[in-house]
Amino acid sequence: MMLSAPFSSLLSHKNADSLSVAAFEAHIHQLCQMMQTLLHAGKVTFWLLHPARSEVICLQDIPHPERIGLSIPIDAISALSDAFNHASVLEFPNAHLDARLRNTPIGHEPVDIIMARVVCDDDTQGMLVCRKEQDHDWPINSRALVNHFVALAEQALLMLQPDAIAWRHLLWQQRLHKLTYQLATKTGRLFFTELVEQLANEIGADAVWIGELLQVGHGAASVRIIAGCGATIALEHHRYPLQESSCRLLYLADDWIIQSMPDVPATMLIQPKWLIAVPLRHNQQRIIGHLSFTFADQHPDPNELVRALQPLLTRIEAELIRYQAESELRLSSVAFDTNKGCIITDPTLTIMRVNLAFTEITGISAEQAIGCELGKEIWSFSEQQGDALLKGQHWRGEMERRRLNGELYPQWETWTPVQDETNRFSHYVISIDDLTERVRSSQRIQALAYYDELTGLANRRRLLEQVNVLFEQAKAQDEVGALLFIDLDHFKNINDSLGHAAGDWVLQQVAERLKPFFTKNDELARLGGDEFVALLPGLSSNPPQAEMHATLLAEQVIEAVSAPYYYAGQVLHLGASIGMTLYPTRHQTPADLLKQADTAMYQAKADGRSTVRAFDATMQRKVDKRLRIHNQLRDALRNNELSLHYQPQHMVSTGDLIGAEALIRWQMPEGGMISPIEFIPIAEETDLIIDIGQWVMEEACHQYMHWYALDIKLPQLSVNVSAKQFHHSKFTERVYDVLDKTGMLPEALNLEITESVVLEGLEDTIQKMTELKSIGISFSIDDFGTGYSSLGYLTRLPVNELKIDRTFIKGIPNDVSNMAIAEAVLAMARHLGFNVTAEGVETRQQLQFLKQQSCHFYQGYLASKPLPADVMAIYASDHLRKK
């Protein structure tokens, strides 16, 4: 058969490897047009099979495009089922007489219909339907022509078929065409509600919503959801901050976005995997809202989605503009009863009406305002504002205005053009808000947000922002800066003894002394409490010179801070310990600066206070090790890695065993032993020491009673108690709990406390000791002589015993000073009626000296090292049996 040139051109796509969705649609459209021409058909339609829904969807309808997207279930029409199961072209004469085809898009008039299935990969994928035009007969070769068109359609489908996603998109694109016509008569909220429901269904989205952009004054932009459906709770009328949603990226990009694992409104029930958001514009310019889709799994190609939605987007935008304009008009009537100024003008900006709030804000009465033209007789316009109004566009922004009395003030204005039913501007509604108090409040809030109220220095927030800025600046300019962390020495003593008023006064004085040392380019801040930080940018391009400059400045600061303070007739003395770090260094980040300087500051305190130390890697390793031990120590307590050893205590005069001291040990799972000297100070920095101390007491008492049941009756068991543990509000209750739980004999339990316990609260210490002593528990002062020993508190404490620290025993008999201290302690103890235990006795010479001084008890390696519980049981059994 000879084909016309236009018909032959349909075969040209055979030379291509594949077809895009757009090209496929174009080919089918052209094919249907050619069929209508060559067959003299009154109507030609092409239907695609939707396998998931067992229905056919209209892809092309010549000459009725409004039916594109229409779907018909296959089983609803027997003729369709017949055609899909028949390999050849089927002809149905007088289709309207067949009840099966009545009231369907393919059978309304008394005409003949030709139906032919379109097969791809041995599977029916579509259907071509031709309706004969009235008063015309089918051409003689009509069936052959239809077969050729079927072959062309099958070839096009074959070239589209490998792209499964494109195939799926093609199906729902056609349904969107139908949706366009379905919504043609809908307006307002009904339009939006039906729109989102249909879109969610057709596109397979989990949630769909239309968001209207809202922004009032200088506040953060927000989104009001006009209509929504899907996996949400009360999504309609919901309002959420734009910054809390990934849709904010749409406004930044000024285009549609696709986002994986997006931030979504708080009303979303589930976290979607994908978000696609399409902007909605006012007259194809500024964005006034967006259309959002979320998907739990697969999503359509965004470009295809936007292209498919394009016929709808224009309508959606028009409806959104109308909706906003109508809302503004409805609100304008009640706006006259609010505290915001309101003006209504005609299209020439001549004032038609103002409310009372307008007069109160501007001082201009309604009589003076009505009839005046905005921009000429009242106010003036900025260039941007004038351009927007000239084009009839919505405008909002801050303007400086002048009241009737001449006073200038800031004002937030919202200009809303209102259109009539013919889309012509009918008037403007202008809302005004006096920002005077808001600006003042903002300034006050700014000051509170970035500056310390007590000293006027920058606060932590301001400092952290400047650290980021100056760090990057130093990297860009290849300069070295420094950060000084300044911590006051002995400030707590002043605050505790004289009160917070005195402490605040001292902090203000310190701030005044610090200010002269720093320039306007530096940043001096108070972090809180007695901690100050100075950020020094651009000291030098040479690191050693920068360090020398910063060290010299730090030493001058220490000298200034350490000068006397005269307060209420008293002379107060402070010091300052300063940690310093240089920046930027290799692998360093802005967040590291404060940590490094803080670490160096603690090293300065450890080195004797009132000094400056520069950060180095060794300090960081120490900090990391302490942190590692702290974290592992928590696990050690939970995982039963801690154990107790017991060091025997003997009488100096006779050598009799009179008790033992429980000493904690930590065996790491990997096999390493951690010394108490290393981990106890770390535990004491946190409340972990309270839990460890409680465990030690309970474990020791359990062990004592176990020995007691084996007839190993030690006269006394000593347990150490930390200051934090002792001063815990429930310390005495916990001691009672241990006694009840273990059955421990109170008269056999000796609690060892250090002088630091007393220093942290003498009255609390006396009260707790007295209460526990009343039930038989005894007390010892451990490490006596190493702290701030005071006979004043010693005579008031219900103490049984003093323990001379091993540092004073170690040098005997060679160290005359230590011997003198030991003699003094023993003499004092005799006069006050205390027993004395010497710790760390390792030689017979030391024991002989203690006998000569009438010391009561001793413990140390001369008698025995600390022993595990089972070995201690044997040791105690042997000594008690000999006795």
Structure in a nutshell:
The chain is α+β, with helices and mostly antiparallel strands. The strands form 6 sheets. It has an 8-stranded mixed beta barrel with strand order 25-26-28-29-30-31-32-33, surrounded by 4 helices. It has a 6-stranded antiparallel beta sheet with strand order 3-2-1-6-5-4, sandwiched between helices. The protein has a 6-stranded antiparallel beta sheet with strand order 9-8-7-12-11-10.
Largest sheet: 8 strands, mixed, barrel
Helical element count? 29
Q: Give the overall form.
A: elongated
Q: Order of strands across the biggest sheet?
A: 25-26-28-29-30-31-32-33
Key phrases:
883 residues, alpha+beta, Beta-Lactamase, 5 domains, 8-stranded mixed barrel, 6-stranded antiparallel sheet, 29 helices, 34 strands, disordered N terminus
Map the helices and strands:
Blueprint: H1 5-9, H2 21-39, E1 41-50, E2 55-62, E3 71-73, H3 78-84, E4 90-92, E5 113-120, E6 123-132, H4 142-160, H5 164-182, H6 188-203, E7 207-214, E8 222-230, E9 239-241, H7 248-253, E10 257-260, E11 274-281, E12 287-295, H8 302-335, E13 341-345, E14 351-354, H9 356-362, H10 366-369, H11 383-390, E15 395-402, E16 408-419, E17 425-434, H12 436-450, H13 460-477, E18 480-489, H14 491-498, H15 500-514, E19 523-528, E20 531-540, H16 543-562, E21 565-567, E22 570-572, E23 575-583, H17 590-606, E24 612-614, H18 617-638, E25 642-651, E26 657-667, E27 673-674, H19 676-684, H20 688-709, E28 717-720, H21 723-726, H22 731-742, E29 749-754, H23 755-759, H24 762-773, E30 778-784, H25 791-794, E31 801-804, H26 806-810, H27 816-832, E32 835-838, H28 844-852, E33 857-858, E34 867-868, H29 869-882
Parallel strand pairs: 23-24, 26-28, 28-29, 29-30, 30-31, 31-32, 32-33
Antiparallel strand pairs: 1-2, 1-6, 2-3, 4-5, 5-6, 7-8, 7-12, 8-9, 10-11, 11-12, 13-14, 13-17, 15-16, 16-17, 18-20, 18-23, 19-20, 21-22, 25-26, 25-33, 25-34, 26-27
Helix pairs in contact: 2-4, 5-6, 5-8, 6-8, 14-15, 19-20, 20-22
